[in-house]
Every structure is written in C-alpha cells, then in structure tokens.
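P.,

For your records, the input lines for the assembly:
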Amino acid sequence: MSFSQLAVSTPIQRALNDLGYTNPTPIQSKSIPIVNQRKDLLACAQTGTGKTAGFAIPVLQLMEEDKNTRQATKGIQALVLTPTRELAIQVEESFRDYGKYLPFRSLAIFGGVSQVPQVQQLQKGIDILIATPGRLLDLIGQGLLSINSIRYFVLDEADRMLDMGFVHDVKKVLQYIPAKRQSLFFSATMPAEIRQLAARILVNPETVAVTPVSSTTELVKQEVRFMEKEEKRDGLVGLIRELSIRSVLVFTRTKYGADKLSRFLQKAGISSAAIHGDKTQGARQRALADFKEGKIVALVATDIAARGIDIDELAFVVNYELPNVPETYVHRIGRTGRAGNNGSAFSFCDREERQYLKDIEKLIGMKIPVARMAMPV
Ligand code: AMP
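Structure tokens returned:
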C-alpha cells in the first residue's frame, strides 16, 4: 500500500516524501479512505501508530478539496482538541509538516502561557486550530474566538481527556460547533464512558482499530530489573554507563521524585532535566528541546508531563518506578520502538512494586524477561 494508492493529493504526497514517509502505517491505510469519503470515524489507536497523520492527512486533503470547489466557509475550518499542551504543539507541527505545500494556516492554543500572542495569531486568520479544551473555552468566553465555522472536528486521545477530567469541557465545546460537521474520534482505549462520549459526537461512524492497548509494540525489547528502592539511583547510573546510553526517557511516579532523581544524575555527571506539571511551560519546552537536540542525556518525566511527547528515534525508556495503572506501562514504553525503530524499555521493580508488575504482565499477556546483571553496580 502506498500513499498514492490511498489517493493522497500531490502536494501532501510531496510533503510526506520530504519527511521520508514511504508507506502509510496500518492506522493511516484504514482511516484515510474513510475520512476522504466524508464519513465520521471512531479510531482505536495509541500514540506511536502514526495516528496523527491518520487524521491530519485526510483533513488537509478535504480542506484542499473544499477550497478548490469553493465550499469553504469563512473562518476556522478544522478544530482538533487535545488533552495536553505538548500534544497540541506536536499535532500543530504535524499539520504544518504535511500541509507545507498547501496554503492553510494552523495554530496551537493552550493554557499555562499568556493568551496575548495566541489571540494576535487568531486575529490574523487561522484555518486549522489545535487546542486544549480549557484555553479554547476561555477565549470563546471572552469573545475572542468563534468556532461556529468548523467543518472538521477531531478529538484526539479521548481516553486521556477522560483521565484528566476534561470530559465536561469537551461536551461544552460541542455546543459551539455546528451540528453539520465531520467528526473523527481517536482513543487508545475504549471503555464504556469513552464509547458514550463517542456516541454523542459521531454520526454513523466507521470504526477502525490497530494495536490494542494490551499488546505492547513488538519492536520494543522489554526487561525487568529487580532491586531495592535505595538501589535504584545507582542502578540507573549503572545502566546508562553499561549501555553507553546517550538519550533516555526516565519515568517517575511523582514530581518530587523526578526533580530529586534529575539532581542526582547531574551530580553523577549525567546531564539531565526533569519535566512535570509544576514546571513552567517555558521550562518544559526548553527541557524537551535540549533533550531532542541531544544536549541532555536523561529526561526525567512524570506520566502526565510525558503524555504525547513525540521524540523520533527514542531508543531507551526506563520505568524508574512502575506505574500502578498497568495501561500506563504500555503508554510509557510506546514512546520507544516507533515507526520502525528498535527500542528498549527497562523497568526497575522493588519489593513493593511486585504487584504492579504482575498487573502489567497480565495486561500485556506476557512475562517481562528478567535481567541477569552484575549487582551492585
Ligand atoms: P503518532 O502515533 O501520530 O504519534 O506518530 C508516531 C511517529 O511516527 C511520529 O514521529 C510520526 O512522525 C511518525 N510517522 C507517522 N506516520 C509515518 C509514516 N507513514 N512513515 C514513517 N513515519 C511515520
């Protein structure tokens, strides 16, 4: 299957070619034809499957078609709701990348930063808006933004929206967009509450699914290392040195734990930064940029801060602390082994975390191999 077989338009194919995308991923092969037929879509796909392009490519294509057939209305044409600022930024970048040979203007708006530059951009005229629900409703409330011209509505990572308590806000947003629209709904998991929300948004949707959340990506090599809590810090330094790791995403359960670990790594001579909800947006973006550019070796993150972080070719993920929600493990390790790259995920498990490990193994349906290692490191 190729992008031309999916009838992707020439300007978009050129952009994909520039990015080095040769073939569509399974979610893209499934979703693009449905969206192109102007049908609503319910897609079960997690981060790392190429889901963003799965909606961005066909939405751009339909917008191009509207423009050529003079069906486009005035104002914002497409709205994508995302649960986090990081994801909003990344989705906007994707629209810009795939639409670089098209005349559409896109913008990401999110809370935690001044609204002034965002409002200035909006006033210049925007075709595609990517927003977190809070800031969106805030600007609508202030009369600074109208979304009543939307033709394409995308809800991205709907289950995260639910986890983060944004469902009420999402429902509110629905009151401001036209009933006559095409809606695309993406979620990694499909619990009953998510299905109910989807039923409210979608009309006669086609359903597609790839890689259920319980199956961890085959490209990720997983390993568990048993150790006591007190041994973990040295264990991490040891692992980084043992494998000469130059780039690793490390997960902790708490913000405090992230800061503490990052300081310890710095002292041990491993450049590091922590990202979590208490850091300013600027500090988070800086840390992420430094990490992407290879200026720091270890990025220590809490789950919420790491959501939606899109780092190409991330080879190593460490679960410094195991998550108590097993699905979180799958999301974490899904950060690596993306789009054909190999990745390794190491999990440090102490005595108190054995039950979490059991829950994870039950969910993913396999025993994670135990490392035989020379301890103490
Ligand atoms: P996503 O699941 O949308 O977060 O995408 C995961 C990663 O895969 C991103 O870094 C994309 O740039 C990349 N990607 C998406 N589609 C393709 C494709 N068809 N070929 C190669 N890489 C892709």
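Two observations worth noting. Residues 220-364 form a domain with the Rossmann fold fold (CATH 3.40.50.300). The longest helix spans residues 51-68.

Regards
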